[in-house]
Design goal:
CATH topology of the largest domain: Rossmann fold
Strand order of the largest sheet: 10-9-8-11-12
Helix content: 25-40%
CATH class of the largest domain: Alpha Beta
Largest sheet: 5 strands, parallel
Strand content: 5-15%
Number of strands: 12
Distance between the termini: 45 Å
Number of domains: 3
Order of helices and strands: HEHEHEHEHEHEHEHHHEHEHEHEHEHH
Length: 484
Amino acid sequence: MKLTVWTYEGPPHVGAMRVATAMKGLHYVLHAPQGDTYADLLFTMIERRNHRPPVSYTTFEGRDLGEDTAGLFKTACQDAYDRFKPQALIVGASCTAELIQDDPGGLAETMALPVPVIALELPSYQRKENFGTDETFYQLVKALAGPVEKTPHVTANLIGPLALGFRHRDDIEEVKALLEEMGIGINVVAPFDATPHDLTRLGAAHINILMYPEHAETAARHMERVLGIPFTKTVPIGVGATHDFVAEVARICGVEPKKDLGRLRQPWWSKSVDSTYLTGKRVFLFGDATHVQTAARIARDEMGFEVVGLGCYNREFARPIRALAKEFGLEALITDDYLEVEKAIEDAAPEMILGTQMERHIGKRLGIPCAVISAPVHVQDFPARYSPQMGWEGANVIFDTWIHPLVMGLEEHLLSMFREDFEFHDEAGASHHGGHAPRASQGGQPPSAKLTPPGVFRKQRRMRPRRWKPAATSWSGSPMPSVS
C-alpha cells in the first residue's frame, strides 16, 4: 500500500457499492468508520445521480474500539431494514473495519431478518474495486438465482452494467436494439435497475449477454455451469466487433443474424477524404481490459491508426492484454501506478492518447490530445445526451470522440499558419463581430500593426476576459464586446 494522488480502482467495498447503487430494492450495510463514508460523493457528484446510494454505515469512532463494535453493526442492520424495507441485504466491512474482524455476515445471520442476507468477503488488502463488483454480483446471483422454466420465446439477460460505469446506461439501449432486430427479447438487465426479485428470474433466459467481463464474468460462468445458460464472449464495441457479436448471438440462439446498418456512418466517414490525415496517427491505449481490447481493434483496423503502446490497470486481465500486445508487436503495460503510465506515454511520444480520466490529465501535462475510452472517468464523461459505446451508434460516437482532439489540434495548426494574415492575426477582432472591426487598445487608440508574439498570444487567451472601457474622447458608439 502506498500514498497516491490518483487511483484507477478503489477498495473492493466501493465495487460492492456500485452494484448496490445500480440496483433497486437492495440495501448495503457497511461496517466502516466515519472516514470511509466518502464514497457517496462518487455517485451524486460524478455520476450526477438524483438519489444517494442505498448504503448504511456503522460509522464507529476511535472511542468505540474499546467497546462493542459488533453491537453497533447489528443496530445498523436492524435500522436499515426497518427504515428501507429492502427485498434483500448485503453486508460487509470496509478496509479499515476489516482489521477489527467483527464478521458482519455471521452477525447479520444471528438476527434472523425476514429477507435474504448475503455476506460479502472482500479482501481489501489483496483485491480492488473491479473484483468487488464481480464478486458482489456473483454472490447475489448465487444466492438468488435458481432453475426456473425458460421463457416461451428466445430471451437474453444483459449482465454487467452498473453504477459509475462508462456509458453503461446507453450501451444497454444499443444492445437491446441489436437483439430485437433478431427477434430476441430481454429477460433481465442486471445489476442496472434490477431488483433482487428480478435476479430470481435470471434462469428463464436462453443466453447471457456478458457486456462487461470485469463486472460479471464470474456470475456468467456460474450461470453457465449451474443453470445451463451460455454467455457471449464478444463485446460489441466497434464495427467489426459488433458484426462478430451479432453472428455469435445468432449461432447460440439459432436465429438469423439480422442487422440494420441504416444508422452506421463510421466506416464511410473514416474512409472519407477529410479523414485521410488520421491514417498512421500514433496512439497509446490504456484503461480497463475490455475497452482497451476493443479500442485496439478499432484503432488499427477501422481508423488506420498505429498503436504504439497499450496496457490495463486491472491485473485480473493481464494475460489476455499481454497476448494482445504481442499481436501488435508491443510489450503490455500492466500497472495501477499512473506515474508508470505517464513515463511510458512520454517514452512512446504518441500523437494521441486513448485512456481514462487520469490519461486526460497526463495528456494535458505532456501536451498530447486525449480521448477517454474507459473508466475511471469524471463528471464530463456522464453526459445528459445519448452517447453509447456499443453497437452501430456506439461506433459513430467513438469516431467523433476520437477525431475531435485531432481536429482541434489541426485547427490550432491552421491558426498558427495564418497568423500573419490580415484577417487572422492577433490584433484583428473576432470575425463574427460586425464589420470585422479591429480590437481597440486599452488607451482608446487604434491598435498597432505590430503582431503579438505567439507565446504572449497564448497567455492572453488564457486570461479571464475583461471588459474594455473606451476613453471618452477617442471613441463614439457602444463599447466593443469583450473577447476571451
